[in-house]
Automatic annotation (TrEMBL):
Residues 18-59 are annotated as: Disordered. Coiled coil: none annotated. It catalyses: a 1,2-diacyl-sn-glycero-3-phospho-(1D-myo-inositol)(in) = a 1,2-diacyl-sn-glycero-3-phospho-(1D-myo-inositol)(out); chloride(in) = chloride(out); a 1,2-diacyl-sn-glycero-3-phosphocholine(in) = a 1,2-diacyl-sn-glycero-3-phosphocholine(out); a 1,2-diacyl-sn-glycero-3-phospho-L-serine(in) = a 1,2-diacyl-sn-glycero-3-phospho-L-serine(out). The gene is VDAC2. GO terms for cellular component: mitochondrial outer membrane; pore complex. InterPro entries: Porin_dom_sf, Porin_Euk, Porin_Euk/Tom40. The keyword rRNA-binding does not apply. This is Non-selective voltage-gated ion channel VDAC2. It is found in: Mitochondrion outer membrane. The lineage of its organism: Eukaryota, Metazoa, Chordata, Craniata, Vertebrata. It comes from the Eukaryota. GO terms for molecular function: nucleotide binding; porin activity; voltage-gated monoatomic anion channel activity. Its main location: mitochondrion. Catalyzes the scrambling of phospholipids across the outer mitochondrial membrane; the mechanism is unrelated to channel activity and is capable of translocating both anionic and zwitterionic phospholipids.
Length: 340
């Protein structure tokens, strides 16, 4: 007689095959190996496509005012034609931020100055801002963010001019979440408030926005603007129509880590007035960059920015009229930024 010994961990099933437990048959796989196998067996749709990330899919679209901002920054930042400008930023021990700026116009010799203080109470999502300028205008701004609901920002803005006695007040609301960025502002005036609203929808890089302003005192629409764009990490396209009469568009391209380019185009309906410009910014190294731009009026602008030391930045700029090179009229600019 032959006795067949079967382990207690093995159980016979109707098919005649033996089913075994993990503890008896074979070594247990390490957790990292199991994760690797699961990742390899996942379908391609579970992974982002090349050049794509989860952050891109979940991105919040910009506000309407920020559509095409990357191209505008290439045209505007790094220049200060006809101005001598000084900007100072600092922060106290208790968290109060101070920002002071002053500029002198070389043509008119007019000096303009601004002072701003800001304090953030992070525990309650509050920001208090006080402003003053050389026109003797005082401003106070209180902002509440992400307190009522995540993504909601409320701002109460008031200004007062002691010289003229003029007062103004504005209530701003903004809400942003996945695929949506909307806002509504109410500007209070003695004649009647004006209401401004804007919204941007975004999906897979495509953007569509609308902006309007309604004057309740005159019961008419003051602004009626529409914009469409496409945005990726290195490329942005923006087109807009303002009041059905002004058409514009811009293209931003980040060619490499050091080179950024932009193209701007605008024209008015019913006229031959067309504006066209090309701009570029090149990062020479981690401390210096050079900018250049030219438009269809033959105005050529050049700017050079140098970080002298951490917190100290110098900007030199020049504007040359290509049509009147020998007759003068060119402008120079000097800017200094201090931050501590």
């Amino acid at each position: 007689m032959v006795l067949l010994c079967i382990p207690e961990t093995a159980r016979q099933i109707p098919s005649g095959r033996f089913r075994h437990s993990k503890e008896t048959w074979g070594p247990r796989l390490a957790p990292d190996v199991m994760k690797t196998r699961r990742a390899a067996s996942a379908s391609p749709s579970d992974h982002p496509r090349a050049g794509e990330s989860r952050e891109t899919e979940m991105a919040i679209p910009p506000a309407y005012a920020d559509l095409g901002k990357s191209a505008r920054d290439i045209f505007n930042k790094g220049y200060g034609f006809g101005l001598v400008k000084l900007d100072v930023k600092t922060k106290s021990v208790n968290g109060v931020e101070f920002k002071t700026s002053g500029s002198s116009n070389m043509d008119t010799s007019k000096v303009i100055g601004n002072l701003e203080t800001k304090y953030k109470w992070d525990e309650y999502g509050l920001t208090f801002t006080e402003k003053w300028n050389t026109d003797n205008t005082l401003g106070t701004e209180i902002t509440v963010e992400d307190q009522i609901t995540k993504g909601l920002k409320l701002t109460f803005d008031t200004t007062f001019s002691p010289n003229t006695g003029k007062k103004s007040g504005k209530v701003k609301t903004a809400y942003k979440c996945e695929h949506v960025n909307v806002g509504c502002d109410v500007d209070f005036d003695f004649a009647g408030p004006s209401i401004s609203a804007a919204g941007v929808l975004g999906y897979e890089g495509w953007l569509a926005g609308y902006q309007m302003t309604f004057d309740t005192a005159k019961s008419r629409m003051k602004h009626n603007n529409f914009a469409v764009g496409y945005k990726t990490r290195d490329f942005q396209l923006h087109t807009n129509v303002n009041d059905g009469a002004e058409f514009g568009g811009s293209i931003y391209q980040k060619v490499s880590d050091k080179l950024e380019t932009a193209v701007n185009l605008a024209w008015m309906a019913g006229s031959n007035s067309t504006r066209f410009g090309i701009a570029a910014k090149y990062q020479l190294d981690s401390y210096a960059s050079i900018s250049a731009k030219v438009n269809n009026s033959s105005l050529v602008g050049v700017g050079y920015t140098q970080t002298l030391r951490p917190g100290v930045k110098l900007t030199l700029s020049a504007l040359v009229d290509g049509k009147c090179i020998n007759s003068g009229g060119h402008k120079l600019g000097l800017g200094l930024e201090l931050e501590a």
